Amino acid sequence: MLELGGQTPPATDLIKDVSEADFMSEVVEASQTVPVIVDFWAPWCGPCKTLGPALEAAVTKAKGAVRMAKVNVDENQMIAGQLRVQSIPTVYAFWQGQPVDGFQGAVPPSEIDAFVERVVQAAGGDASGGLDDALAAAEEMLEQGAATDAAQTFAAILQEDAQNAAAYGGLVRAHISMDDLEQAEAILNGAPAEISQAPELEAAHAQLELARQAADAGPVGELQDKVEADPNDHQARFDLAQALNATGQTQEAVDQLLELFRRDREWNDAAAKQQLFTIFEALKPNDPIVLNGRRKLSSMIFA
Predict the structure, then answer these.
(1) Are residues 42 and 66 located together in one domain of the fold?
(2) Among 8, 83, 215, 276, which residue has the fewest nearby CB atoms (within 10 Å)?
């Protein structure tokens, strides 16, 4: 499990069947440190069969920021009477030993999610379970060159949230940094269909394509000499742009591609424009290289 200042409890700890014998410990005392949502239900209650699983899903998604106690009112009538449960389903949220929120009857999933979020915020928590902090930490590791540690953190996040596009993209980029391009491609290919078009994965795909190009890039110095000797040698200029990007000189690579586009925008099936788009997709949308490059390219396209 991912440790984010504390372990996320397993599902068996997050959601429990509670009786009169352990209500005090599992709800009242437990709510001193984490909010506890109590679902009062019965086997014969039709709406309960819909509400219960929806509540469990919302609580599980909160990753330990809230817990859930299920109370069968047929078997625990004394608790139901003490809390004045008059109809079911009835849901109460306990924080620091006291009911702080609740509702009666079946409600839509969106309202259940909002209820859980409200309960967590009332306790000063974060329903995302700290995954955003973990993502930020992994990104920082990657920027500092600790690609292996970053990959482990991204993988741990995916264990908690299998459709986290940012973690998938980060894991791909971490393997690219480790020069493990085959594994990076395998991770991309294994991403859930629901997030396959997410911007984070599109960016990772572009970075993988650039990394493969970098493996075949020629010496920058030789290519610069060829371009200087013949400014209309479009292939040499294109190869120079790839080599520059491979050595981290992204702005210089963009400049060469813009010059190539200016000289012959249709060369090699508009290869300069396509390569520019690939570089832009691999960078953050607000990167100055992207913003300035897109503006210059647009001005040439619509000139």
Answers:
(1) yes
(2) 215
**What's the pTM value of the predicted model, to 2 decimals?**
0.58
- Residue 273 structure tokens: 């424009």
Query: Domain range holding 275?
Result: 217-302
45 is catalytic: yes
Residue type, 141: M
Identified catalytic residue from 48, 107, 211, 240:
48
User: pLDDT (tens digit, 9 = 90+) per residue, 15-47?
Assistant: 999 999 999 989 998 888 889 999 999 999 999
Q: Whose CA is closest to 226, among 193, 270, 256, 203?
A: 256
Clarify whether residues 96 and 19 are in a common domain.
Answer: yes
Given the residues 30, 45, 174, 271, select the one marked as catalytic. 45
Task: Indicate which CATH number applies to the domain containing 290.
Answer: 1.25.40.10
Same domain, yes or no: 159 and 224: no
